[in-house]
Structure formats: C-alpha cells, structure tokens
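step=predict obj=Anion exchange transporter n=662
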Amino acid sequence: MTGAKRKKKSVLWSKMHTPHCEDIKQWCRRRLPILEWAPHYNLKENLLPDTVSGIMLAVQQVTQGLAFAMLSSVHPVFGLYGSLFPAIIYAIFGRGRHVATGTFALTSLISANAVERLVPQSAQNLSTEGNASVLGLSDFEMQRIGVAAAVSFLAGVIQVAMFVLQLGSVTFLLTEPVISAMTTGAATHVVTSQVKYLLGMKMPYISGPLGFFYIYAYVFENIKSVRLEALLLSLLSIVVLVLVKELNEQFKRKIKVVLPVDLVLIIAASFACYCTNMENTYGLEVVGHIPKGIPPPRAPRMDILSAVITEAFGVALVGYAASLALAQGSAKKFKYSVDDNQEFLAHGLSNVISSFFFCIPSAAAMGRTAGLYSTGAKTQVACLISCIFVLIVIYAIGPLLYWLPMCVLASIIVVGLKGMLIQFRDLKKYWNVDKIDWGIWVSTYIFTICFAANVGLLFGVVCTIAIVIGRFPRAKTLRIKNMKEMEFKVKTETDSETLQQVKIISINNPLVFLNAKKFHMDLMNIIQKENASNQLLDDISKCEQNTLLNSLSNGNCNEEASQSCPNDKCSLVLDCSGLTFFDYSGVSMLVEVYMDCKDRSVDVLLAHCTASLMKAMQYYGNLDSEKPIFFESVSAAISNIHSNKFQYVVNSCFLDLETMSL
C-alpha cells in the first residue's frame, strides 16, 4: 500500500515538474511577442500604412539620432547606431505597437554626465593612428563611446534584473503627475544644454546640483561672445520647424503624407553651409566627418561599471518610466494591453545588446510615438521598416551630412521636445482635479531642475507615498446600504418587455494610484461575468441578494426571472458614499471606467458624489452631457433608470478596494 502511494506520488511529482510542449510554446509567445503577432500579420491591410509610417519614422530616427548623440557627448555616428539596433530588439521583445525605441533626450543627457566626467574635453586626442579598424575615429571618440556604452550595458542589466524580480508590479508608484513633471523638467534641462549651440558659444561642460542656473549665469556673463550668424540660423530653423509642423498637424486629414521638415531642413542647411563655406567664413560649428558602415561588435568597458552606476540607475529608471508611459498610452488609445514586466525585459535587452554595437542608452521618445500615431502605423513592422532606411543612411548618405551646422541640430532637438515642454498646461488640469497632485507636480519639477531627472523622479515617488500614508488614516469605510430600503422608494412598471439588469457597486475606500488599477480590473471582471452569463441566478440563497423589482415577483424567484434576458441592457450604479478622497489617478480611472462601459453599451451612473469629485470628473473627461450621470442617492439613480420603462434586476455588490501595504 505504501509502495503504491509512493509510486502515485512520484508520478504526480514528475507531471508537475515536466514541462509540456504547450507550456513552452506559451512561454515563448509571452516572452517573444513577435511570435504572437507576426504569423497573423495582414499584408493587405497593414503593409502600406506601416511602410509610410516607417519611412517617416526613419527621418525622425536619423535626425534625432545625430542630435541626441551630440547631447550624449559622443560622435554623431553613434546616434545612428542607437537608432537601429534598439528598434530591432524592441520589435522582437516589446508589446507596444506604437512605441518607437531609439535614442532619447533624457537618457542621453544622463549618460553625458558620465562621459564628461570620465573623458573630459581636456583629454581630447585628435590622433587617429591605430584606429583605422574602428571607422577611422580618434582615441578620444572611442573612449567616450566606451563610457556611454558601459552606461547602456549596466542600465540594461538593471532593467533585466528588475524583470527577473517582477518589479513591474510596483510601477503604479509612477503616477502621471510625477512622470509629467519629471519629463518636463528633464526637457528643460535638455533645452538648456543646447543653448551653447543655439548661440554659437564656446562653453565648458557644466553639470551637478544647480547646474541649470550656472549655465544661464555663464551665458549672461559671456553674452558678448554670441555669434550672430548662429543665433539667426537657429531662430530661422526653429520658426520653420514649428510653422511647418503646425501646418502638418492642422492639415493631416487632407494630405496623405506629411512633409518631413526635419529632413528638408537638414538637407537645405547642409547644402547652404557647403556652398557658403560657413565653417571657415563665419566660424559655425558643423557635425564633421561621419564614417560609413557599422564596426564589428565589441564588449563595453567592464572596468568602469562601478564608476557609472549612478548614471546607469538614472537611465534605467527614467528611460523605463518614460517608455512605459508611452506604451500604456498607446495601448489605451488603440485598445490592447502591455505587460509592465515584459517592458522591463524588452528595454533591458535593447540596452544590453545594443551596447555591444557602440550604442548610447535608448528608450522610447514622445515625438516618434506621436509620429506613428499621426501616420497611421498599425504594428511594429513600421519600426522594422524604418531600420532599413536607417541602414541606407549609415552606409550611403551619412558622409554627406559633414556640413550640417550644429545650431540646426540643436534647433531640431528643442522643437522635438515641444510635446514634453507643453506639459506645463497640465498644471491647470491638476489644480482643478486634485490640488495635492498639483503640488507634487510643481515640487517634482523643481527638484528635477535643481538636481537631475532621476532625483526628481525618486522625490516625486517618495512624496506621493508619504502624502497617501498621511491621508489614509482619515479614510472611513462605509457599509453597503440595505437593499430593502430602496425597494420602498422605487416603483416599477409591469408592462415593459425588456429586462434591464442594474448592478450597484459600493466603493468603500479612497481611490488613489495605489488601487486605481485594481479597481478597474475588478470592475471590468464583474461586467464581463455578467455579459458572459446573461442569465439570472436561480439559487434561493442568491435570490435573497438579487431582488427582482417588479410587481409580479415581490422579491421571490420565478421562472421568468431565471431565464436569460432577451435584448438585455445593463446599467451600473457606483455608490461613491465611501469614496472619502481621491487623487488624479483615481479620477482618471473613474473616467476610463465610464468610457469603457460606454463602449460596452453599459450605462454608468454615480451616486453620493461629492462636489469636488463631480467637478474633477467633468473637468478631466468628455462625459456624456445628454444623459445625467451624477445623482444624490442610489434610489435616485435607479429611478432614473426606471424612467426608461424597463423591468430591471438590482444586483448589489460590495467592492472593497484593497490598498497595498506601503
């Protein structure tokens, strides 16, 4: 008997630990999303829009690659490599269909700190002897890209480690106000770093705490050294870029292909500089020699990893936070989902693998992602097609960019950050929705300006957690109201032919960034279960909880109630009497729930809302103005549903939002 038990136990144990072929396939599809979408790619419907988007994306990748490489204090050609390899790797491992990974202003600015600290400008060596095998670049340039590649490698390792530790589940701490303030502050830093090129000034590299203010102090002290030619060319470039991009945005529905003004400006400026010899005549700084081809891979410098760990953590956190926000935004816009942990893996491998090909740190950029939106990209194929054109530039067109003025590249960087800089407009929104989030935004921005993007990000997260800890002890949890009290206040019609199901859910905790996602997930699960079942419960014990409010039933189960509802229509009443306080993330999630339910033909009504909650929701989202959605009580909401002359079932539900322990 004992032997039989042991044998049975060993068989069960072997079944538990023997991986099945189907399990391996599912794991591969989960970790290699390209295996999931590539076999089902629709050539007829998607290839043309993806090709057009890929061409336009390639223009942005090339121009931003050159510009952000200079921002990272390395040779421009390495920006072209950084526009190629990370995009390919993310297309394989990432789930964001409209996420254009490549060079990124914020990560370039952070890595520049390590480059300038370990290989300062004073160590420049113009000799190219012994480096002919590496594209003919000098020792100085190779040392600098070695530092940038080391930052990229270590940042990628950190991101992969976060994936292994499943830290994607804590990304709810990266609230929208914190991300918005951090990226706006970092964009301000980037613009400040380009002032010397816009003005044509020679300026030493300035960084560290309050470095933002020291740069402008130096500019005003040396205002006489501004080159008028560079200033005028910068102003002209900015005006042209802004004007044409605004026209493209305004008439994008009437024209099939937008004008690639960045590419046109680069060609025109390079040609003008070549014809007039601006480099020697006016002393304008130009990009210089850009070698052809891609060098063989080389491992990044491992001996300096300990020296760049601060910048690596900054790149890992800031790059992931900005990229995840774009991925989640695109997923929400186009109705698909992204995995926070998988994004850690995708961006981590993009940085690790690309570091062997002389690439600077990478991440997704707002401008490129917005470009994919506007050009109608369907899948990641658009990014892969853009890589083909980037390769053409690397092997054929790159050397022709020798005469491109640096002030024009700086202008492209500044205008490309417009999407981040105009986030200042969000301040009004935060003030109207939640003044505490407004305060978090302002303080995070100030910390980012005074110190760095990673410091501002950490401060914003800590500040958000501290405020929630201070607010939660005052939260009161209310019990769900007795459904019998509602029965006396509601009268029903007996001649209606349609049965409408009403589900009442009581929110009995604060709705903040800690539990907003869980609230949305639980609510959608409840709605999906109702749609899937499409049938009233006929169990006697459950019938006591689900009261049929019509004169025929009188609270008892009957055959008509137990049958499926033909032409059924559902309504959802959210009792917000227990929602003691909320933040911007909570309001955003409530509006998202309303819009999602509207798409599912589920009417949403909110009862017992405070004046501040109604004001915040109306200000945040475009709610349906034709139908009232806010009511003084649950009974009033049900009466409004009843006015449509439906029979209906009231289903009470207590939704206790679990808050994560801090």
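step=describe
The first helix runs from residue 2 to 17.
step=end
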